[in-house]
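Consider the following input, taken from an annotated entry for MOSC domain protein (Sinorhizobium americanum).
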Amino acid sequence: MEELKEAHLIAGRGIAGDRYYLGTGTYSPKPDVRDVTLIEMEVLEALAQGEPKVPAFKATLAPEDHRRNLTTRGVPLNHLVGKRFRVGETVLRAARMNFPCRYIEELLGIPGLYQGLLNRSGLNCAIEVGGVIRPGDPILPIED
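Applying the prediction step yields:
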């Protein structure tokens, strides 16, 4: 995982060069909408502070650790499910909230991370209009 100065999103495929774009992601063989995934920075901060949801659990996850494509701030992602929105030159459609998997616990060696991410593991989106996105691009809702 690496931070990019810009990413090229391809409609119906994903982010050029991403493991799911290439078909090599852990869940690539399982059909689902995951052209691009988002997660809230506020979730990462809550995990670092400790959550009453999982007693005594704390975890520090940097944006390059969480295995989602985009890290957002100030946007409650669950409010976007079923909606379309712009990011940079692109138009995304929020399909569903992401489900955490036990694989991330194994990969990062953080027991309890699965439980800590339940119901806030990110947002799976389809790319309807491709284009370039860059850090700092706002997320703008599209009225249907």
